[in-house]
What does this fold into?
Amino acid sequence: MTDTHIPTRTLNDGTKIPLIGLGTYRLNGPTGVQAMLHGIDIGYRLLDSAFTYENEGAIGEVVRRSPIPREQLVLTSKLPGRHQQYDEAVTTVHESLYRAGLDYWDLYLIHWPNPARGTYVEAFQALIDMKEAGLIRSVGVCNFLPEHLHTLKEHVGVLPSVNQVELHPRFNQSALRALHDELGICTQSWSPLGRKLALVHAPVICALAEETGLTPAQLILRWHYQHGAVPLPKSANPERQKENANIFHCELSQSQMERIDALSLPDGRMAGQDPAFYEEF
Ligand code: A2P
It folds into this structure.
């Protein structure tokens, strides 16, 4: 095994998660299983899946084939918008487990708030109840805006452990990160490399990469880490998986961090998916 040691942090409910995870969108079927097994071999322990990725079966296959014991893995799935009603959410958590052949998910997240539907509060209550029942270790959300987090607190009395949001140098989410810190919510970053924006080729990123001796991807992922966010880079390629995980032995200076921060734009989302309006089913 060519293991990279990945440190962990403790969530607001006392459970621990690694400080970088492997995104699994489009890692399906035998090639997806192989890619995830490579990731585990390199040292990844957090695999980030979703009901809509249609690879919960592959996650289960990875668990069965991996030499790493189940309890050392942190497995995430997500509730799709079409199943946010309470009873459907409960059924979907069970279906996710049946698909994967697992007894529990470490993290189960609401995939999008879909606020126009008005059902994310009952979905969250369902996930909290599934946690009580032992089917989920930690409950979280994705793409929640501050008003959605406050609504959960008001109506359910509990805050999520994680909010997984679009976060990369073009959209650095500084205000939301500050709110998460205040509320004790862990920020996870999806599309941390800003794939569709080709940020690994941006001139500032390339110049800083050269200055620091990191690759552009490592520089960006280290920037997430130093901001207290947990990046979930997807890669099917073992070399890039290894490159991406190898970010814990370097330090960006304040001014280097600020030069990356300066790339952020108010409308810097990759595909304009503003959770206030965007709908995902
Ligand atoms: P591949 O799977 O061929 O490695 P994001 O997490 O922002 O959505 O980005 C995922 C995309 O970025 C994938 O297409 C992945 O391709 C690519 N990628 C992952 N790691 C790196 C890296 N270190 N350098 C360049 N591209 C990468």
